[in-house]
Amino acid sequence: MDKQLKINSKQLLSKIKIILIIYLVLQISCQPPSKESQITESGSFIFLEQDITQVQQGYKDGTHTIKEVVQAYLDRIEEIDKNGPAINSIIQVNPDVIQIAEELDIEMNEGKIRGPLHGIPVVLKDNIDTYDKMATTCGSRALMNSFPLKDSYIAKQLRDAGAIIIGKANLSEWANFRGELSTSGWSGVGGQTKN
């Protein structure tokens, strides 16, 4: 009888542990998000759910200009990447991006469209060469002053199609070729990305 009581006690303890674990998981998952994790109110970033066609239709309709869209994205980077939840995903912003947007607005007003991405902001990983005032660091401090002498093939194709390269995204340093145990999303230049 003592043996059977011990077995039943062990089974009961195991069941209680499982119930407690389930309870804790449910408690944690049902908590409201912290203020830090809340990005913005719905609707405060009007381009969140818009695709390329919708953004370009807004250009044609006069709803917004390329400069306004670029500024909205710069504000968004400041709001959630540098402040708020501070996801730390952007290493650098193109310092000439507003001037480029203004030039593309002028071209559009004159009827010149560079291509299917005219006026569409894009962010490239920081291991893609761009010929502008942004360094290409691969996330490494060793390349902080590396300014390529020409665009990479993909950057040139994007620019020729009318896209605006607004910045460079953080990445695992050297695209995670440092070793098997390196931290994903961390670089010496950008720190840890939290997305």
Automatic annotation (TrEMBL):
Gene3D superfamilies: Amidase signature (AS) domain. Residues 68-178 form the Amidase domain. SUPFAM superfamilies: Amidase signature (AS) enzymes (SSF75304). It holds the Pfam family Amidase. InterPro entries: Amidase_dom, AS_sf. PANTHER family: AMIDASE, OS04G0183300 PROTEIN. This is Amidase domain-containing protein. It comes from marine sediment metagenome.
